[in-house]
Design a protein that fits this description.
Elements lengths: L4 E2 L26 E5 L17 H10 L10 E10 L2 E10 L3 E6 L4 E5 L4 E4 L4 H13 L2 H10 L1 E11 L12 E9 L15 E6 L5 E8 L7 E8 L2 E3 L2 E3 L2 E6 L2 E14 L10
Parallel strand pairs: 1-8
Antiparallel strand pairs: 2-8, 3-4, 3-16, 4-5, 5-6, 6-7, 8-9, 9-10, 10-11, 11-12, 12-15, 13-14, 15-16
């Protein structure tokens, strides 16, 4: 029997402000305690070893299609339409092992990259807009979450059976989520609070095994609490790989960014120069 726990009632408020070792969490079915994710920072040119990921995430990566594990499937590219307060236009996102990122906006030639050490930009559109892309369309993408887990950090299983409504519907049929809290290993060149250096909550859909949401909570305690959600919806399969059809960013429950995927693919490694603006 599934435990009816309203996701909105999770004890997420103070968890981000403290270490995972002492963070208070609400329990759904069970709590698995703390562990280490991965075996250490991925070296340049290296890939994810499924045997070093926590069991649940190894299975989730295999459900995704098993990419980022060798030179032939080392990169993922998503092309589609980004919509924000500047309107809608075409954009492209690339993620590459061991943790390289590139976002290109066709309308204004904006390019945001992460070269393994630092984020860089060309024709940026302001700190807030760029950070939204760096978080939700780069650092929080499923592929990059798995690469972060493989690079190491603190991981806590919160529990399973979490539901996404208010818990009052007796006919609720899903989805049910398995939740984890993750604190990434410090990276040279980045400071705490930057994308890839933020404690996050990871929700895995229990039925599909696919990543459903990445959530961040800052300024714990009302009235200044800031909740950011990156949701992955309408997954589709192509070439034996699964991709999110829609990526939605919510800030305190208000949608501020979306990316509708129109083309997606997995390929080999691109030159490192591709991840420079």
């Amino acid at each position: 029997m599934k435990v009816r726990v309203d996701l909105k009632m999770l004890c997420l408020v103070s968890a981000v402000a403290v270490s995972l070792a002492s963070a208070p969490f609400c329990r759904a079915q069970s709590s698995g305690g703390s562990s280490q994710a991965g075996s250490g920072t991925l070296a340049a040119g290296s890939f994810i070893n499924l045997n070093t990921l926590p069991a649940q995430f190894g299975g989730a990566l295999q459900a995704l299609g098993g990419r980022m594990t060798n030179a032939a499937n080392a990169s993922t590219t998503l092309s589609g339409t980004i919509t924000d307060d500047s309107g809608s236009r075409q954009a492209q996102i690339t993620v590459q092992a061991p943790g390289l990122l590139r976002f290109q906006d066709s309308a204004n030639s904006r390019v945001l990259t992460f070269n393994g050490n630092q984020f860089q930009s060309q024709n940026g559109s302001g700190q807030q807009n760029d950070q939204r892309v760096e978080e939700s369309l780069m650092a929080n993408l499923p592929d990059m979450v798995f690469l972060q887990l493989a690079a190491g950090g603190g991981l806590r299983r919160i529990g399973g059976g979490f539901r996404t409504d208010d818990g009052k519907n007796p006919n609720y049929t899903g989805p049910y989520w398995l939740l984890y809290a993750f604190s990434p290993r410090p990276r040279p060149g980045l400071t705490a609070g930057q994308p890839l250096q933020q404690p996050i909550f990871i929700a895995i859909d229990e039925q599909t095994g696919l990543l459903a949401e990445v959530r961040m909570v800052a300024n714990s305690g009302k009235p200044n609490q800031q909740v950011t959600q990156t949701q992955f919806q309408n997954w589709f399969q192509q070439g034996g790989q699964w991709f999110p059809g829609n990526i939605i960013r919510l800030e305190n429950a208000k949608q501020v960014l979306s990316f509708q995927v129109q083309q997606a693919g997995v390929g080999g490694q691109a030159p490192a120069t591709s991840f420079q603006p």
